[in-house]
Design a protein that fits this description.
alpha/beta; seven-stranded mixed beta sheet; four-stranded antiparallel beta sheet; 13 helices; binds 4'-deoxy-4'-aminopyridoxal-5'-phosphate; binds glutamine
Length: 381
C-alpha cells in the first residue's frame, strides 16, 4: 500500500489548518444535521446503546433502510437478509470489493474516481480499469464504446458512483442503461456508490441502478448517512443487495470492523423515518450554494462546469493562466488563502485531469463569499 501514501483530503485539510486558509477542499458541511436526530444519538447513549450491536446492524436501522428504499425507489429489500449496516460507505465499498473480487480480477471505475476505490481494489489484489469521464457540453460523461472496450474476461464488477464525486455528474437513465446492458451481457456485478443520492439539483432525478430491468439481482447498492444528513463524522452507511451478495459482503465486514457504532444507528433510523423533509431543504439550500460559488468562481476567472449533484464544482484553471492543478492547489493558500482539491489525483491518466480543480460548496454563504473575494486576487479582479 506504500504507493497510496496520505490521501489528498488529509493533505489539503492539514494545509488549510496550517495556513489558516478557507477549506473548500475536503467535502464536509460546516453546519449540523437535523437537531432532533442529533438528540436521538445523545439519548441513545444515555439509554444504554453502548455495547456491540448485531453484526448486520441494528434491526431498527435495517428496517428503516428497507422502508426508505421501498418508499423512494419502489425497491423491496428484506431487512433481515438484504441490508447490511457498515462503517460509512467507505467500508461498504471496501468490503464489497474484497468479497466479490479474486486476485487478478478487474474492476471498472469511471475516472476521476473517489480515491478509496483504487485502495480497496488494491487490497483485493484486483486491478482497477479506468474509463474516463470527459466534459461534453459542460457535463462530464463517458463514451459507451470506451466502456464496452474496457470489459475483458477478467472483469468482475463495475463501480458506479452517481451522483458522481468529483465531477457532479448525475448519470441519466440512458447512461445507466448502457452500463446495465453491459453488466447483464457480461455477467458483471454493479457496485453502486450512491452517497449523494438525495443531493441533486435543478430537478434532476437520481436513478438507482437497481431499479433498471434485471439489475436488482446483480447490484450492490451503497448509501451513507454522512451526506444525506450532514453527519460525515458519524460514519454510518449501508449496503442493500440480494441475500447471497450481502452474505459475502458481511463475511468480509465482520473481520474489518465486525459491526458499526450503536448510537448513530438508532439516530439514523429516526432520520430516515422523520427527517426527509429536512433533507429536501438541505438539497434546495445546496443548490443555492452551488449557484453562489459558481458565480463567484466565474467572476474570479475560472471556467466553471455546472454540477447536477454532490457538494462539488469542477473548474478549469487555464483561463487564469495556470496549467497544473496540483501545483496550483499547493500554492493556493499562499496565493489566496483558500484550499481546494486537484482533480488530477483521481485519474489513472493524470494528464486528462491536470487542468481541473474541485471546490466544495457545502459551506456557509459567508464562507463561500469570503473564499470568492480571496480567489479574485488570482486575476487581480
Ligand atoms: N463515496 C463517495 C463518492 C464519497 O464522496 C465519500 C465521501 N463522503 C464516500 C464514499 C465515503 O463515505 P463515508 O464517509 O460514508 O464512508
Ligand atoms: N468525500 C469527501 C470528499 O470527497 C472526503 C472524505 C475523506 O476525507 N476521505 O471530499
Amino acid at each position: 500500500m506504500r504507493a497510496f501514501g496520505t490521501t489528498i483530503f488529509a493533505e489539503m485539510s492539514a494545509l488549510a489548518v496550517q495556513t489558516g486558509s478557507i477549506n473548500l477542499g475536503q467535502g464536509f458541511p460546516d453546519t449540523d444535521g437535523p437537531a432532533a436526530m442529533l438528540d436521538r444519538a445523545i439519548h441513545a447513549i444515555g439509554a444504554g446503546a453502548n455495547q456491540y450491536p448485531p453484526g448486520p446492524g441494528m434491526p431498527e436501522l435495517r428496517r428503516a433502510v428497507s422502508d426508505h428504499r421501498a418508499e423512494h425507489y419502489g425497491l423491496a429489500y428484506d431487512p433481515d437478509r438484504e441490508v447490511l449496516v457498515t462503517v460509512g460507505a467507505t467500508e461498504a465499498v471496501a468490503a464489497s470489493v474484497l468479497a466479490l473480487c479474486e486476485p487478478g480480477d478487474e474492476v471498472i471505475a469511471f475516472e476521476p474516481y473517489y480515491d478509496s476505490y483504487a485502495a480497496s481494489i488494491a487490497l483485493a489484489q484486483a486491478r482497477l480499469v479506468a474509463v474516463t469521464l470527459r466534459p461534453v457540453a459542460g457535463r462530464f460523461t463517458f463514451d459507451p464504446a470506451e466502456l464496452r472496450a474496457a470489459v475483458t474476461p477478467r472483469t468482475r464488477a463495475i463501480l458506479v458512483n452517481s451522483p458522481h464525486n468529483p465531477t457532479g455528474t448525475v448519470f441519466t437513465r440512458e447512461e445507466l442503461t448502457v452500463i446495465a446492458e453491459l453488466c447483464r451481457e457480461r455477467d458483471l456485478v454493479a457496485i453502486t456508490d450512491e452517497v449523494y443520492e438525495h443531493l441533486t439539483f435543478d430537478g434532476v432525478e437520481h436513478v438507482p441502478m437497481a431499479t433498471l430491468p434485471g439489475m436488482r439481482e446483480r447490484t450492490v447498492m451503497i448509501s451513507s448517512a454522512g451526506k444525506t444528513f450532514s453527519v460525515t463524522g458519524w460514519k454510518t452507511g449501508w449496503v442493500c443487495a440480494p441475500a447471497p451478495l450481502v452474505r459475502a459482503v458481511q463475511t468480509v465486514k465482520q473481520f474489518l470492523t465486525f459491526t458499526a457504532s450503536a448510537p448513530w444507528q438508532l439516530a439514523v433510523a429516526y432520520g430516515l423515518r422523520q427527517e426527509m423533509g429536512w433533507v429536501s431543504a438541505l438539497r434546495a439550500g445546496l443548490q443555492d450554494k452551488r449557484d453562489r460559488l459558481m458565480e463567484g468562481l466565474s467572476a474570479a476567472g475560472f471556467e466553471v462546469l455546472r454540477p447536477s449533484g454532490t457538494y462539488f464544482v469542477q473548474t478549469d484553471i487555464r483561463p487564469l493562466g495556470f496549467a497544473d492543478g496540483l501545483e496550483l492547489t499547493r500554492r493556493l493558500p499562499e496565493l489566496a488563502g483558500v484550499v481546494a482539491i486537484p482533480t488530477q489525483v483521481f485519474y489513472d491518466h493524470a494528464e486528462r485531469g491536470r487542468h481541473f480543480v474541485r471546490f466544495a460548496f457545502c459551506k456557509k454563504d459567508e464562507v463561500i463569499d469570503e473564499a470568492v473575494t480571496r480567489l479574485k486576487r488570482l486575476s487581480g479582479s
